[in-house]
Amino acid sequence: MRQNLPNRRFSINRTIEHERHTYEVTIGVYPDEFRPGEVFVQCTKIGSHVEALGRDAAVLLSLALQHGIPIDLLRKTLQRTVSGSPQTIIGVIADEIAKWMPPAAAGAVTPRTPVLTGGCDKVLA
After folding, report:
1. Per-residue pLDDT reduced to its tens digit, 93-115
2. Which residues have a Cβ under 8 Å from the Cβ of 80 and sit 6 or more positions away?
3. What is the pTM of this model?
4. By the 8 A CB rule, do 78 and 61 touch?
């Protein structure tokens, strides 16, 4: 079940570089455990395909977080290079979120938390 954030909430702003593009990322957090619950992305190339992908990635990340999917689980399912670096902006954002999150919130899986199995095609409750 989706958990909405309160109207007034703390947020963290980051500037991220990926593939020669600069992104301004805002991460809204739940006040209870400082868990991330929403992501907003703006690219310096306003109106570009790159900006549209960043914004779509933010919506998908936000929905996953609001439905209780742990950020560490999301990070494990995203594409990585051979060296382990994220291949896309969504992976870069997920890694940035994981850097400052409390450890318990990053990977905590409770019985009510959906678990992704078999890639991205199945969600088990």
Report:
1. 999 888 877 665 555 444 334 33
2. 86, 87, 91
3. 0.74
4. no
